[in-house]
Design a protein that fits this description.
This protein has about 500 residues and is mainly beta. The chain contains six helices and 32 strands. A hairpin with a 2-residue loop joins β16 and β17. The protein starts with a helix and ends in a 7-residue tail after the last strand. This is Multicopper oxidase CueO. Keywords: Metal-binding, Oxidoreductase. Monomer.
């Protein structure tokens, strides 16, 4: 049985086991070191000009082949230079040379097959976050695509309703650094329920990948585990960009692809917008809100109507997440700028009813999950139910087809966490003992945040596939520290049918 420290200390010994690359482990800094002022060689975030670069819209990947049931794709993971900061080139890890990664557009009931080739200097494991897939295509932490041109084919049946999914590296101990260096992409799954609505579409339907970063004096990404000095905010791969909009409605699909950063997003004039969806697709009804909160891995689907603004108006998408006393507000408080142009034809609508979620079945199993970590700075260990991740240990046995209620508690006193389960979408029943009836958590979810000392209760049904999957904190640095566990779904002898 291999424990976390064994993996950290024996990367060279694992070289042959994972295809000649070795298990490359990032240098770990202590939490105390992570909160020190930036090193003298770091780029000063205040020197980066804001709202001077246009925010790109990620390109849609085209299939290499199409059959009656399946769309086939081929992607190559590789390093390229990207202009994240104005006038500078930064080396990033990408899918197909795109930063942020490309978009795959898929349809429920129609299979997608992706052949991944790894040209990086580190192994990779590609996880489609939020997807209902067989274990063989889940991107398990040790199911690796070797460096030097190693390949793996992932099959996504898309046997689930519409959802805003995304894919990223999941190689254990390496995922934190590799995702931070750019290995992410978006996967927009649609279905008839979504398509029959008249929501903003085409160029007025814009995915936005949000994250933070820290740069050295040469403009290269600076990485250390648990780093809280990542104070340059990126939208679709650009630092503090602007985006030109017409005076009409836009649909923005917001993805928090950060390692650690929580966002609370609002428009700078505090005007309301419509919240229409969360991780697992559309809510039942649109909600008028003036802000939306996203922890790492979470998604929000919103509609903003710019027709109320005169041409020439500028608005900023602000981040109002409470900051530490020494955080640079001018950098962390602003995300991107909208520049409103003239009017454009708009026949789109946001109906009063978006979808109907299925009724919750009766649950037959209750479980308790505790998230914790060393907060003293003495180690960088993190745990679920008191144990760090062990790839050879099954922590939870789940009966195939069972509906279970999991009570998840953040036992940390200072550090927030969040919780993500592979294979399933779930419903949030309670937060802090109070029923959840509205907001992002009233829809289908796969990731849920927990503040220090907080408890949430979630319900999921485990069906479709048998196999071993993981649940973990989706603050990647915490997962890499060991806050992850295996669960196995299988039929027992009495449930063989």
């Amino acid at each position: 049985m291999m424990q976390r420290r064994t993996v950290l200390l024996s990367g060279a010994a694992l070289t042959g086991a994972i295809g000649g690359a070795g298990l490359l482990v990032p240098a770990l800094s202590s939490p105390a070191e992570a909160t020190d002022p930036p090193a003298a060689g770091d780029l000063d975030p205040a020197s980066v000009p804001q709202f001077q670069q246009a925010m790109p819209v990620p390109g849609t990947l085209r299939p290499t082949a199409v059959s009656g049931t399946t769309d086939y794709y081929a992607m190559t993971m590789k390093e390229v230079d990207a202009e994240i900061l104005p006038g500078r080139k930064t080396l990033v890890r990408t899918f197909d040379g795109s930063f942020p990664g490309p978009v795959i557009k898929a349809v429920s009931g129609r299979r997608v097959v992706v052949r991944q080739t790894n040209r990086l200097t580190v192994p990779a494991s590609v996880h489609l976050h939020g997807a209902h897939v067989p274990q063989s295509s889940d991107g398990s932490p040790m199911d690796l695509v070797a460096t030097g041109g190693g390949t793996k084919t992932y099959t996504y049946p898309n046997s689930q309703p519409h959802a805003n999914l995304w894919f990223h590296d999941h190689t254990h101990h390496q995922e934190s650094e590799t995702v931070y260096r750019g290995l992410t992409g978006l996967y927009l799954l649609t279905d008839a329920t979504e398509q029959r609505l008249n929501l903003p579409s085409g160029s007025y339907d814009v995915p936005i990948s949000l994250r933070d970063a820290r740069f050295d004096a040469d403009g290269q990404l600076a990485y250390s585990m648990g780093d809280v000095k990542r104070t340059v905010l990126l939208a679709n791969g650009k630092a503090w960009p602007y985006f030109e909009v017409a005076a009409r409605k836009y649909r923005f699909r917001l993805f928090n692809t950060s390692n650690m950063r929580f966002f609370v997003l609002k428009l700078s004039d505090s005007s309301p917008f419509q919240l229409i969806g969360s991780d697992g697709g559309l809510l039942e009804k649109p909600l008028e809100v003036d802000s939306v909160a996203l922890s790492p891995g979470e998604r929000a689907d919103i509609v903003v109507d710019f027709s109320r603004y005169a041409a020439g108006t500028t608005l900023v998408l602000d981040n109002t997440r409470p900051l530490r006393p020494d955080d640079p507000v001018e950098q962390l408080g602003k995300v991107l700028q909208f520049r409103v142009g003239g009017p454009a034809a708009d026949t789109s609508t946001v109906p009063a009813t978006l979808r109907t979620l299925p009724a919750l079945p009766a649950a037959t199993v209750d479980r308790s999950i505790e998230l914790s970590m060393d907060e003293t700075g003495a180690t960088q260990d993190a745990y679920i139910n008191g144990r760090p991740y062990d790839m050879d240990r099954v922590d939870t046995e789940v009966e195939y087809g069972a509906t279970e209620i999991w009570t998840v508690h953040n036992a940390s006193t200072r550090m927030p966490h969040n919780f993500h389960i592979h294979l399933v979408q779930f419903r949030v029943l309670e937060r802090g003992g109070r029923p959840v009836t509205s907001g992002l958590e009233s829809g289908l979810k796969d990731t849920v945040p927990l503040q220090p000392g907080e408890t949430v209760k979630i319900q999921a049904t485990f069906t479709g596939y048998e196999g071993t999957y993981v649940y973990h904190c989706h603050m990647f640095d915490h997962a890499a520290m060991g806050m992850m566990a295996n669960f196995r779904v299988r039929r027992t002898r009495g449930n063989a049918g």
